[in-house]
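W.,

You were right to be curious about this one. When I first looked at the sequence I had no strong expectations either way, so I just let the prediction run and decided to look at it fresh. Below is the sequence, 149 residues in total, followed by the output.
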Amino acid sequence: MINPRNIGGHVKPVVAIPPTSPLAGTVNGAGIDRLGFGSVQPQVPLSCVVHAASGALGGGPTTQTLDVKVQDSADNSTFNDYIPPGAAVVAAIPQITAASSDARVNVDLSMARRYIRAVAVTAFTGGASPTMFQFVDVTFGGFDSVPTP
């Protein structure tokens, strides 16, 4: 039973891509072991919310974009884009196009393999070596059993 006064006992937040200010390109987050929750027995999250945020811009770009998608893997080595059950496209946040913005997507993980990761792709037009502060976090929920604190 879910205790509405202790939501923290029913979700597990994880940093998927630590705060960074990359140049244009791709940042692959570390693999997150979905069996790594619980101290007594593994608890597998069957859903998550992927949240990305942008911050300050550097280098004066005229436009900027941040795209974040979810990939999964059986071995934490070879990752592929993850398409949730019933979806026709890869699990991804709506594109972020402004500084100090955020976006999120709810993801059904019921068919995902053991490991997932976030992949962030940053692009710019104009500017001198532009950067955009950003981070990605994942909040897991819908565990097959209640997680231990």
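Here's what jumped out at me. The chain has a mean pLDDT of 91. And, maybe more interesting for your project: The domain at 12-138 is CATH 2.60.120 (Jelly Rolls).

Coffee later to discuss?

I.
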